[in-house]
Please model this.
Amino acid sequence: MNKRAISRVTAVVIIIVIIIIATTVTVFLTQRAPTTTTPTTITTPATTTTPAEKRKLYISHWGFGWDLIDKLVIKPFEGEYNVEIILISGTTSERYTKLVKGVEPIPDVIFLPDYYAYRAIQQGLLIRLDLSKLQNYQYIYDFIREQLPSYIKDYGVPHTIQDLGIAYRTDRHAQVTSWKDLWREDFRNEILWPAMTATSGPMALVMTALAFTGDMHNVDIAFKKLKELTPYIKAYYTRSGDPQLYMERGEVDIVPILRYNWGPLKNLSLPIGIVYPAEGSMYVLNVISVVNGSKNVDLAYKFIDYWISKEVQQKLSDALVDAPINKMVKVPSGHPFDISGVVQRPIYLDPKFLAENLEGWVNKWREITG
Amino acid sequence: MERNNWMIAIPSFPILFFIFFLLFGSILFVIFSNLSSIKDKFIPIFSSEYFILSYLTTLKIGLVVVIVSAALSYPLAFYSHFYNRKLSRVMDIIVFIPLMVNPLIRSLGWMIILGKEGLINWLLMKLGIINSPLRILYTDIAVEIGLLELFFPFMYTAIASSMENIPYETVMSASSLGAGSLRVFKDVVFPLSITGFMTGASIVMVGCAAAFVTPSILGGMKVKTLSIILREYVDVTLDWDAATIIAIAILLTAFGFIVGISLLKRLLLRW
Model:
């Protein structure tokens, strides 16, 4: 019948549509490219039709603050070297996993925390650099160049520093100077502590070892001290924005923080003091590396050299994007990125030490806090 | 006219295909393609104290939310459906308002209410009921409150819509035969709407087992649920095998709960 014929045809059409959709989705999922955004151009066809062959440099970066970075660093670099920079953004673990799995497009240059860089280096994913090709390398703080072990140094160029400080309410508590002050009685139930799974978590653990035993490798004692503190810890933080959130809401009075929390905490208009522990400033670095297999190694060198130059570091520091590692950069005293306190007693947390122990630490931490 | 009109279901095929074959299938694919590396980790993870504790926490939170949301939904649905139809229509819309707010914002809102300097503590201190602030935030209770707000609408809707199927006359005849409203509820309404409760319980339980944002914010990482340790494995130790195992555990729990509840339903209906 007519109606029947129509419904059959409709069914066939729908099935064909389903098959087409299914195939497209499958193809998309199997050959999926990571989220790429082209900061330079809005539409991709426009670039493919430009007559002048522009070279493309793929940058893997977490993408945080990219609007500013694009304006301050990327645009000028693109103009100077006639290249197009394409950002591959994502969280660190996402980008690291893509790098390990070789997900296309493979970046030329990758920004990683030193701990992840170390792991990538161990897997042969990053190339060994000729540091003499980087004219600005010599301007990196002496202590960084001296403390950086060669297995990182030759593969990743530091571009910013994250050091561990202590933020506390000055109106409710007496002055804090030592890391051990976190164990003071007046801070009980007022402590926000970094989860072992946050960047600052292992740093706080090692710092505890250092403060109580003088040896940062003595983590057994650190775990004992941490266990002592556990009942008095109000919450653990994992997100970078948590310290300012908890402080603002008056939930906690003291929290070990990283450098990037300084600015937001100072903006809170609360009586918050941020101190360098007397035992020293534990720090980690974020590094820039060139990915093994990149066809733009020459450009990658130029890009890295450009990023660590005084001009760029100054701009990024002034715009509160990254704390500078170039010693020529002028940072006013009291500025959130003024790391003069770190320079006094810097203690580098070796990523190798971290990589070899982190899993065990996380498990141990779960035991004592669970 | 005993025609099998299967074609009517055709438009739903793409979504079914997408959900089952692509999303669920990809999970199964990951599991089976990595089976050799995963299978050695099953027993150590499942037997670890840490896992068992967070498993129990997840279950406990889920059950509390199921029970409390049902306890809150029933009287409301019962009253509004049988005694005040206008209210019932309004409630259908009102209960969904919390869902229109982003979970992150919603959880942060609870911080303001439950926090040390929050509304509840401020009120209790002003009234002189307590001397020092109560610790509600970063405990299981805070997580349960947050999840209750999130999942109450589902429980309410499931129960209310199953009450729609109970004819008003049934309730009327029960009352006219002398049953008080409690008795009407216990012997007539509850058994007839048990399907709704079971559906609601499944949705709420499964949702609680998989929730991440609410427990992570309101629990201050002190309340460890399965989804929180899953994220730790993915993001920190980069142990995808372990994360897969946790995902399997969540999936099995959800599945087991649904199967269990449908068995329970059959049992209850017979009785």
About this structure: Chain A is about 45% helix and 15% strand. The two ends of chain A are 69 Å apart (CA to CA). Residues 165-276 of chain A form a domain with the D-Maltodextrin-Binding Protein; domain 2 fold (CATH 3.40.190.10).
